[in-house]
Amino acid sequence: xxxxxxxxxxxxxxxxxxxxxxxxxxxxxxxxxxxxxxxxxxxxxxxxxxxxxxxxxxxxxxxxxxxxxxxxxxxxxxxxxxxxxxxxxxxxxxxxxxxxxxxxxxxxxxxxxxxxxxxxxxxxxxxxxxxxxxxxxxxxxxxxxxxxxxxxxxxxxxxxxxxxxxxxxxxxxxxxxxxxxxxxxxxxxxxxxxxxxxxxxxxxxxxxxxxxxxxxxxxxxxxxxxxxxxxxxxxxxxxxxxxxxxxxxxxxxxxxxxxxxxxxxxxxxxxxxxxxxx
Length: 278
Fold this sequence. Notes:
- This protein is of the alpha+beta class.
- It folds into two domains: 20-134, no CATH class; 140-260, no CATH class.
- It has helices at 20-30, 37-58, 76-80, 99-108, 110-113, 130-134, 149-155, 175-186, 194-211, 216-225, and strands spanning 81-85, 119-126, 140-141, 162-165, 227-230, 233-238, 241-242, 248-252, 255-260.
- Strands 3-4-8-9 form a four-stranded mixed β-sheet, with no helix packed on it. It has a three-stranded antiparallel β-sheet with strand order 5-6-7. Strands 1-2 form a two-stranded antiparallel ribbon.
- A hairpin with a 2-residue loop joins strand 8 (248-252) and strand 9 (255-260).
- The longest helix has 22 residues, at 37-58.
- It is elongated and about 75 Å long.
- The mean pLDDT is 89.
């Protein structure tokens, strides 16, 4: 994970222009013309490498695949699901008063001709039902909910190898005692992300103990300038932000562990590839 303390890292969102030959393959797919799937996948892989190299050369900090494998944001759903067909009667409100521009963009332009905003005209079903069973990526990152105990309860050992935001050191002093107290009070396991919340309370407590009285200004200054030992590791603030927070975590052997920053106490090496789902 890239970070910077002195500038905003550059990135972008969305689709980047595809090579003409790949574009033609995508259009042929939309027109239901025969396309060599092996050749298509090889060209997609090559195009991703090319577009990533161009982004790096241009100075983009956080690159993407440019959506080289997608036929288009509105067309892609038609490849994956049945029930969509024909064209919806749609004109963007900012173009409605300019029919000549609409004609150039969506009638005369070949790319615009292949921009399909389909209607729902039947039951929506996954075209390739077996794709769900075949889905078994070597690396997987999920967001909200991933560190919750219910996630492990639902999926068991299949959680191992899944990456997420955050992290912790399972061997941090006081962490086991926190878990035991949490189970005793709530009769359930603690969510891994709650450890950082409890750590903030520890910071507040230690700052009050350092100041020796309930003086908000003094407590604020103690927090801003102090270094605190918590169940989430050492915490120090810079410009009102945690100077060195856990940023990447992973389920390993049934527990959430911190991976990055690798310099933090208790950081584990990443498990890659993710254990295969069976």
